[in-house]
Amino acid sequence: MKILGIMGSPRIRGNTDLLLDEALRAARGQGAETEKITVDKLKISPCKEDYACLKDGNCDIRDAMDEIYPKLLGADGVIVASPIFFYGLTSQAKTLIDRCQALWARKYVLKQKPPGSGRKGAFIAVGATKGEKLFEGSILTVRYFFQTIGVDYAGDLLIRGIDKKGEIREHPTALRDAAELGKRLAQGTP
Ligand SMILES: Cc1cc2nc3c(=O)[nH]c(=O)nc-3n(C[C@H](O)[C@H](O)[C@H](O)COP(=O)(O)O)c2cc1C
Questions:
Q1: Protein residue closest via CA to atom 2 of ligand 1
Q2: So what's the pLDDT on residue 19?
Q3: Does any ligand 1 atom lie closer than 6 A to the CB of residue 163?
Q4: What is the pLDDT of residue 190?
Q5: Per-residue pLDDT for 51 more than 70?
């Protein structure tokens, strides 16, 4: 069981990072192998929309995505973790997701099946405000991303009202809930 965590915050050891670490730690506790991709540390170009991927499902931009595509396709579980920036994912997370248009082309244009079935995905998000619709746009993005890479949207952890770096440690349940999500993902039942 391999679990891949995509850490979309630029703030290392911030709220998203701490939540994702808890989820991955708990997954390892269940015997899973885990890997965290801190997107902000990598060089990933935005999608250039030249649609080279329509030919054979491969992007013609050479950068860190070369190593991320096989990881996305080889994981049994994928966690997308991002703070909310302007009611959406961070540009770091969104850039990685947009580059998966190449995988969209494989599935929907070239009619190739994404590898494996029963792969599960989870979404962790944190925002400062308390608005009812705070996570709606991001959930849609992550759902469509998971559909593209052949992963079921199996659960999420959405935390409101957290702003300062590391403030998540003061939340009554969030870190425990993140661990529970990671544990269940590793068990295949989030
Ligand atoms: C550029 C930017 C945009 C933000 N937009 C929102 C927003 O639309 N809604 C919200 O509730 N919080 C917003 N926030 C606050 C962050 O979501 C919040 O501080 C979060 O806890 C940061 O998590 P992190 O420590 O993992 O980066 C924004 C923060 C930044 C820097």
A1: 85
A2: 98
A3: yes
A4: 65
A5: yes
The rounded distance, in Å, linking the Cα atoms of 104 and 18 is 30
DSSP H helices, the chain, are 15-29, 53-56, 65-74, 91-98, 101-104, 136-149, 174-186
Using the predicted structure, report yes or no on whether residue 50 has a pLDDT greater than 90. yes
pLDDT tens for 130-173 read: 999 999 999 999 999 999 999 999 999 999 999 999 999 999 99
Atom of ligand 1 nearest to the CA of 16: 26
What does the angle CA 116 – CA 67 – CA 4 come to, to the nearest 5 degrees?
55
Amino acid (1-letter code) at residue 99: R
Q: Is the CB of 16 under 6 A from ligand 1?
A: yes
**Neighbouring residues of 86: CB distance < 8 A, sequence distance ≥ 6:** none
Identify residue 142 by its one-letter amino acid code: V
Atom of ligand 1 nearest to the CA of 165: 25
